[in-house]
Design brief:
- Helices cover 30% and strands 37% of the residues.
- It has five helices and eleven strands, in the order E-E-E-H-E-E-H-E-H-E-E-H-E-E-H-E.
- The strands form three sheets. A five-stranded antiparallel sheet has the order 2-3-6-4-5, with helices on both faces. A four-stranded antiparallel sheet has the order 9-10-8-11, with helices on one face. Strands 1-7 form a two-stranded antiparallel sheet.
- Helix 2 (78-87) runs parallel beside helix 3 (107-124).
- It is elongated, with a radius of gyration of 22 Å.
- The two termini are 16 Å apart.
- Mean pLDDT is 94; it is low at 200-205.
């Protein structure tokens, strides 16, 4: 897999059923810290809501996800929300659905439909972006070849993650996996340049 689908901007949508309000929020979530921050913000914005249910999926291997029914019957909220994320093959994102109880019990089938619909509605108004899978490398080189290095980075659409430009420069970049062979070939042709792979393929957050 050379690309993955995610979102870059938050969105909100609302669904109503028999008096209950289901307000769905979508957020980019490159890591669990983003999830925690956004959940705390929503709980602060909706302190009187009956439930704050959510689902997120992170990373590219499909194993990093979490769901919460937050007091609703087991499987009636978090799983339907995650199902909508997965049906669109999205990752690095979070959906929180806030419920205000309207006085009428919806039953488990009604809850599943409500949370599923709220999540689907917010995804309908959330732009999806396609990003390249990246592999992180750290480059160390003499400042005299800095322009050559930066030109390769720019031309090959690599992402600069961090940089320390002194007499001896150190730059960490994310190389799109589909251009990895080309980038490494061009970098290794430069003299006085050390290349070190940082980790396994990672997502472009």
């Amino acid at each position: 897999m050379d690309y993955y689908n995610t979102i870059e901007k938050p969105s909100v949508a609302e669904f109503k059923d028999r008096g209950s309000r289901f307000i769905a929020y979508s957020f980019p979530a490159p890591d669990t810290n983003a999830f925690k921050d956004n959940l705390a913000t929503i709980k602060k914005e909706h302190p009187k809501a009956t439930h704050h249910c959510f689902a997120y999926r992170l990373g590219l291997d499909g194993n990093n996800f979490r769901v919460s029914d937050d007091g609703e019957p087991s499987g009636s909220a978090g799983r339907p929300i995650l199902g909508q994320i997965d049906s669109r093959q999205l990752t690095n994102m979070l959906i929180i659905v806030v419920r205000y109880f309207g006085g009428t019990l919806l039953g488990v089938p009604g809850l599943i439909n409500a949370y599923k619909t709220a999540a689907a509605l917010v995804l309908q108004v959330t732009p999806v972006v396609r990003k390249p899978v990246e592999i992180n490398y750290t480059l160390q080189f003499d400042y005299t070849i800095m322009n050559d290095v930066m030109m390769i980075i720019k031309q090959c659409e690599c992402r600069v993650i961090s940089q320390d430009m002194q007499l001896f420069c150190k730059v960490t970049i994310g190389i799109p996996r589909h251009r990895l062979e080309e980038v490494l070939y061009r970098l290794k042709a430069l003299h006085r340049l050390e290349i070190e792979e940082n980790a396994m393929p990672v997502n472009n957050s």
